Q: What sequence folds into this?
């Protein structure tokens, strides 16, 4: 999973790798809290709509390529 996309805590809940109890607690929080689910979903959707457009990706890659080419 790309951390830049999910960015805890604003667009997801995170759990400790290998910790099934912590995973269950995070899942329980989502099941029990519709406001939290909606907030995370809306924040994720807004980020994708803003940051994952052709224009945004083009600008990101152009800046990267310009940086790489200026170093040589």
A:
């Amino acid at each position: 999973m790309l951390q830049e996309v999910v960015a805890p805590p604003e667009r997801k809940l995170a759990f400790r790798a290998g910790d099934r109890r912590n995973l269950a607690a995070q899942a329980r929080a989502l099941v029990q809290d519709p406001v939290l689910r909606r907030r995370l979903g809306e924040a994720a959707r807004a980020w994708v709509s803003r940051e994952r457009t052709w224009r945004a990706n083009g600008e990101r890659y152009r800046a990267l390529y310009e940086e790489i080419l200026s170093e040589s």
